[in-house]
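Contributing new records

If you add data, match the layout below exactly. Sequence lines come first and carry their own label; structure lines follow with theirs. Keep one chain per record. Anything else will be rejected by the validation script.
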Amino acid sequence: QAQLVESGGGLVRPGGSLRLSCGAYGYNLDYLAMGWFRQAPGKGREGISCINNSGGNTHYADSVKGRFTISRDNAKNTMYLQMNNLTPEDTAVYFCAARGLKECPPAWENSPQLFGAWGQGTQVTVSS
């Protein structure tokens, strides 16, 4: 059964870094755009980054631009999110998602419903 599995979350101090991974089991990533979303307690799901099937086009929410980097290795069926200079406001459950088309959709940040497959999430906590 195809599934997405996130890993790499944890507790980090403000200013620290984490690298999240999303393993895509049973998928052929050559045809799928993928994204990272997050959800903090009491808040809606927020799109933070999206990458097209080849990795040639990437998109970021303003809240993470310049601090986070999305990448993918289709040969390893894995997507990554390098997160630097973390702040307490980055505390959330982080989800990876896959879309059945090659490109990120317009307004991807506010359109989680356009991603058909989701992982179970990994907790990221930024605290001193």
